[in-house]
Amino acid sequence: MRILIDEEAIKLKVKELANKISEKYRGKELVVVCVLKGAFIFAADLVREIEGVDIFCDFVKASSYGMNTVSTGEVRIEYFPEIEISGKNVLIVDDILDAGYTLKKIKEEIEAKNPKSCEVCVLLDKPARRAVDIKVDYVGFEIPNEFVVGYGMDCAERYRNLKYVAIYEE
Ligand code: IMP
Ligand code: MG
User: Fold this and answer.
1) Are 151 and 166 in contact (CB under 8 A)?
2) Which end of the chain is more exposed for a tag (fewer CB within 10 A), N or C?
């Protein structure tokens, strides 16, 4: 395990992203949709740093038919937000943008509910792995094509509790 992004760097970045989001939505309502499970820690920290915005929280869970480290194009939604989305400003929050299948599917499903707006925020982006065209509005860090764990992200459900992001090595 090699630390890629330490706790302090994550904290600073979360504040920076939250400031941008606060600026954009100040005085408005925003439905934050956290993509389970990997984004739970990032989303929890992010919503607590956003200021002056009327925040609503909900979740979405999707699964792809691939294995842990390789995702396929087939994505199934297992849980969809229960709170009203149509006519609302929505921010989808995910841990990492990899091939992009998962986020693309989630964004399409949310947009099908006719939100007022729909933006995407990811902590990490692995651009080298992108297989589909997807626009993200807020990116924390671009990272190399390595498998990472920690700060919500897992390898076979382990290491989600780490305070930092590390490159997984057996
Ligand atoms: P995509 O459909 O390939 O973009 O899949 C993205 C999802 O795969 C992310 O939301 C993560 O849950 C998972 N994932 C992709 N890369 C990593 C990684 O390096 N570590 C842990 N999970 C990852
Ligand atoms: Mg995920």
Assistant:
1) no
2) C
